[in-house]
Amino acid sequence: MSQxxxxxxxxxxxxxxxxxxxxxxxxxxLNGKMLCQVKYFPNKDxxxxxxxxxxxxxxxxxxDDIDMTAIEIFELLQEAKQQEQA
Length: 86
Prior knowledge:
It comes from Domibacillus aminovorans. The protein is α+β, with helices and mostly antiparallel strands.
């Protein structure tokens, strides 16, 4: 299973868990380093991606499409892997 499929599955589980109206969230990390956090807001059917920099400060980005959210997370993970290998 590719990493992108796994990300989409995690995001879908956020949507399913949000059916009770509660905001759901998941963390994405690489080798113990937190890269981002995703929140799903069921009342708006939107995702909020908070990307952490090397100092742990976050920048938030809204998405209304699960695929675009997954691609952004995938790219963050790939970038972090490349930085570790350098």
